[in-house]
Amino acid sequence: MKILIVEDEKELSKSIVTYLKQESYLCETAPDFRTAMDKTESFDYDCILLDISLPDGNGLSVLKELKANNKTDGVIIISAKNSIDDRIAGLNLGADDYMPKPFHLSELSARIAAVIRRRRFSGSQLLVFDELVIDLLAKTVTVKNISVDLTRKEYDLLLYLATNKNRVVSKNAIAENLSGDGADLFDNFDFIYAHMKNLKKKLIAAGCDDYIKSVYGMGYKFSVQ
Asked: Are the beta carbons of 23 and 67 closer than 8 angstroms?
């Protein structure tokens, strides 16, 4: 799951990144309005943490552009401005939640998880595909009630494919999801092939049907009925 942190306070941004990485999130940062606009126009995020007061603009303008472009990224406003007017403005513009500073990082993480579940998974904690179960809170995978030991990248890859079930996902999209805006630093997709091979091998060895199909010249598809 990929998070964008739009926050100009360097120490706070760093603390959020450190905490969320421990929670297995892929984090990117934007310290100002211009960077936030560039990133939100170029990439999709599962959740955006959006400060209202930025050195070169207003965070609510980022939110307006997201909604104008029909982007589905979840948004949590984080701001030192705890006025009811700011909260109402943000929510009316389509924000999913609002957290006044200061806040506990554990609560922020819980709210991020809740937004992603509502946005991506209709509020469900479990994704169930017959014998395969993905637990979104525990970040675990079981096949026929037996735990499958996946690396973080393998889990992220499986979740991304399952989220886009029955849709062909390009290698570029997978690379971006696994590596963020650093995906363009890779010369080829060998790292995707390696993670995909290991993921499929582990699932099949556990007794799972081979849901992940390669679509020649296009990418991969998590194919289920």
From this structure: no
Q: Give the containing element (helix H, strand E) for 198.
A: helix 190-205
pLDDT tens track for 168-210:
999 888 888 887 655 555 556 788 899 999 999 999 999 999 9
> And the tokens for 48?
């955006």
Q: How far apart are CA 152 and CA 157, in angstroms?
A: 9
Question: 37-48, pLDDT tens digit by residue?
Answer: 999 998 889 999
Q: How close are the terminal C-alpha atoms of the chain, in Å?
A: 25
CA torsion angle for 175, 4, 167, 218 (degrees, to 10)? -30
Distance set, CA 207 to CA 17, 129, 193 (Å): 36, 13, 21
Q: Can you tell me whether residue 76 is helix, strand or coil?
A: strand
User: Interior CA angle at 71 toward 25 and 108, to 5°?
Assistant: 35
- Give me the count of residues in the chain: 225
Which contacts qualify for 197-205: CB closer than 8 Å, 24 or more apart?
198/151, 198/154, 199/150, 199/154, 199/157, 199/158, 202/148, 202/149, 202/150, 202/154, 203/132, 203/141, 203/143, 203/148, 203/158
Residue 53's φ and ψ, nearest 5 degrees, are -90, 105
